[in-house]
Amino acid sequence: MILSFGLLFSVILAGMELVEIFGVPFTPLKGKYDQRKAEVFRNLSLVADLKKERLELWLKERLGDSKVLSGILRTGLAEWRAMDMEKTAGVHSEEFLKAEEKTLQYLSGKLSEKLAIIKDSYGIYEKIKVADHQSGIVIASAFQEDMGTVVYRPDLLRLALESKDSAAMDIGKDPVTGETLLYLYRSIQPAAGLKQGEDEGPLGILAANININDIVGPILFTGEGLGGSGEVVLVDQDAKIITRLKHPLPGGTMAVPLQYQIKAQPAVKAARGEEEGIIEDKDYRGEPVLAAYRHIHLSQDVAIGMVVKQDQAEVFAQMRRTILHSSVIGLAGVILAMGLTFLIAGRLSRPIMELSRAAQRVEAGDLTARADVRTSGEVGLLADSFNSMVQKIQDWQGELEGLNRQLTAKNKELGDIVYVVSHDLRSPLVNVQGFSKELEAANRKLHAILQREDFPLEIKKEIAPLLEEDMPEALQFILRSVSKMDSLLMGLLRLSRLGRQALGIKELDMNKLLAKASGDFEFRLKESGTTLTVDALPPCKGDEMQLNMVFSNLLDNALKYLDKGRKGVIRVSGKQEEGQVRYCVEDNGIGISPEHQAKVFEIFHRLNPGDSPGEGLGLTIVRKVLESHGGRIWVESAKGAGSKFYISLPE
Ligand code: ADP
Predict the structure, then answer these.
(1) In this structure, are 449 and 509 located in the same domain?
(2) pLDDT tens digits, residue range 164-187?
């Protein structure tokens, strides 16, 4: 019981802990786990929004840069363009061309110088060049070696020309270094006022690029507030990574930007850009993460995806530690509580156990048993009461034993008296009988004398009635009473002998016993036309002779008290039940009315003394035999409907 209480206690504790951590399922009750998750999601969304905003702002600044730059470069480029056009228009002498070429070189040198200064002052551009918008050939650059080369992204060049007043941007790989670059192309248009003709067109193209990893990366990663495992991942529209990843791939290799495509959901969703939001899923390492995903447009057709994520392991680390700690503490508490409960219960239950042990001993008959309980309180009081109760019972038992001894002695005395009296009374009775017979003989002799001729007639007349009527009648009465008294004394003697006999208890085959007992009644059964059926009977333990007497008496009564008006039917049956055997002798005789049923077992009690012979001793003997066997006899009967005499005996 204590153990189950302990277990229940710990289950409740664990349940409470679980509810506190995980809340109640299907209810609005959220646990710490969900709270923490929501908190981290909020934080991730906040950071993602912030970074998206910062990136967009930064991109806007770059667009602004390009506008400023095209303004700065416009004049120099217009000069160069004019000279170039002059050079290509018409036929010129070699000297002129050489001079022109020099001027062009000078102008492009000046433009390049400007670009070098601009590059240095911005500090974020890896390259800034100006190219011819038709051929894409670089005409000015901060780096001498770029001169005369063709710009790397003709597609962007076209886009830039199409969008005129804006710039075209895209992410791509540097063909030489392999670094990820942000390409920014913008057409440089002639100043509005200076415009000479409708089909004048642009003056050239500004082509700049920025190293994403060196420039954009740091912008995104400053002041993250994302813990140790936090990461911002940028992907292009095909979910290929743009910046280097923080962690190696599951294989251990580092993913190559613009080559490695992420299959994990957060990045895929960020790249697709259908929606922005939060997600709980695995990242590119297969590690469970919490992530916020955003979509950022670089230009009308070009966009990138951004994932801001944090490992769940880190997010819930504190909680897991707390769970572990509180589990350990809880377990220790439960063990301690159980230990204490055991101790307390031990103190409580030990006296109760002691009490129950003593009670068991008393139940087994040992009245010397006492509960050795020395605690105060209710249990102590109970033990005291128990002990004094047992003491009282022991005293009573002593008294009872004394009384019983006296009773047995008295009983024996009484039995002896009955025996002696019934035995000794028989000899005077025999005397009375003997002398009565003598008196009878004397009477006969007197009668003979009276018949003689010479007997005086007058005297004869007087004596004759005395001798012939009064005396024989008196003698008849005396003899009948003597005979009755004799049979009563014989019955008493039998009864008292029964009490003196030792019992020879053994297992008895009752079928055999009944066969023998009923054999004695064969003649009477046949004579009275009575049927006797004896069922198969279970065996029992008892004294063969005495039980024979029992069944003989019962069968005798059944026959004796049959109803003259109908054919007699007697049946003997028996069955076993709960350590007992029960036999029944049933007849369809005159029956016994309920008020007489108890009386028939009393000594000398007869219901209709005149109707049939008997002394009213049979059932008394039967009862006595059963009592000495530890058994019982009772009757179920109704007047006029027959009787059932039941006997129960230990099996
Ligand atoms: P007895 O048969 O010698 O009179 P019992 O002690 O055997 O003495 O019976 C006491 C009385 O119980 C009987 O006188 C009789 O009135 C009644 N009795 C006993 N057995 C039956 C029976 N089977 N049916 C009816 N009455 C019975």
Answers:
(1) no
(2) 778 899 999 888 888 889 999 999
